[in-house]
Amino acid sequence: MKLVVGVRRNAGSRADPVAGNHRLHKEVVTMSDPSQEQRDPGAYEALRAAPVAMPLGSLRFSTSGSKRIDTWLGCTYEQAETDYWECLALQFETCLRDEPKRLDEFQRLLGLPANALLSLGVGWDPKGQCWTFPMRNRLGDACGIQRRFRKGEPRAMAGSHLGCFGLPVDDLQLFADRGIPLVVCEGASDTGAAMALGLQAVGRACAQPGREADAGALEACRGRQVILVPDNDKAGLDGAAEFTPALLRVARSVRCVVPKGKDLRADYLAGLTRQEFIAKINGTPPFRFDVEIA
Predict the structure, then answer these.
(1) Residues contacting 116, CB < 8 A, separation 6+
(2) Are strands 142-148 and 130-136 parallel, antiparallel or unpaired?
(3) Alpha helices in 251-290 (DSSP H)
(4) Cβ distance 54 to 38 under 8 Å?
(5) Each residue's pLDDT tens digit in the chain (294 positions)?
(6) Were both Cys, which of 26, 142, 153, 285 would link to 86 (CB 3.0–4.6 Å)?
């Protein structure tokens, strides 16, 4: 019997009461001898039509870093790669549920509440002895994993594509209420801090803008009142300045709120309250276009 991780996608979803983000229910399933689907296209199509979506392939990396993916019959590379990252994220979430002490330790390490971390899809990698956050593309699909160690900077797993943190799973239309302001942070922990303050938030993987990496954030910002919260350093401020024009093309309005400390999480740990942060947002004028008419 070979253990296969799959994702069950239910029609209903549950909104996180604090963060305002939505997640779909997921579970682990098993299947014996998945190679049968390679020999029997009919069985493969029946499996794809079932409520439980099984993995579509396996992703491997050579010592040189090049990717090799083995897909099942009738499956595209993109489908298999997405399924791989979804299943990996689910495995790590399952490991965290099996070891609740890891969540307690991570709460103490970051100073953030459990509900904010769980809204980000936090997991535990027992092999790497680190915590994980899934990164998502503009469709809400997992496109990579960021790992957070006890010491050092966060690092993406080999083969990951940079994406966004905190996006709704599978369906950006779950951000349907465009009247609610959306906070756009830099990094997973700052996104968790915004969620801990009771705000709806997404996080960019890094300060520097990237077409694919920021596609999810831009899609989530479409038609929204956006609060851009960069890190308070040169890289963060320069990145925010470069990212703002792209936001202005899709958002209803854009305000840039610079933290007092080095980042939003530092302000949260220093005692920043929701009321204080909202007052700071309201005291920041939105960006406006300056147009000269000759």
Answers:
(1) 18, 19, 192, 193, 195, 196
(2) antiparallel
(3) 264-269, 274-282
(4) no
(5) 233 333 333 333 333 323 333 232 233 333 333 333 333 444 434 434 443 344 444 444 444 444 444 544 455 657 777 778 888 898 999 999 999 999 999 999 999 999 999 999 999 999 999 999 999 988 888 899 999 999 888 999 988 999 999 876 545 555 556 567 899 999 999 999 999 999 999 999 988 878 778 888 898 888 889 999 999 999 999 999 999 999 999 998 999 999 999 999 999 999 999 999 999 999 999 886 544 454
(6) 142
- What is the DSSP annotation of 130-180? EEEEEEE-TTS-EEEEEEE-SSS--EEPTTPPP-EESPPSS-GGGS--TTS
Query: Is the four-CA dihedral 77, 80, 83, 88 of positive or negative sign?
Result: negative
With a CB cutoff of 8 Å and minimum separation 6, the contacts of 212 are: 137, 161, 162, 163
163, 176, 220, 249 from 223: Cα distances, Å: 20, 10, 9, 10
Q: Residue 125: phi, psi to the nearest 5?
A: -100, 105
Structure tokens at 223: 């038609």
Q: Which residue has the tokens 């596609």?
A: 215
Paired strand residues for 14:
23
Confidence (pTM) = 0.74
Closest CA to 201 of 215, 177, 221: 221
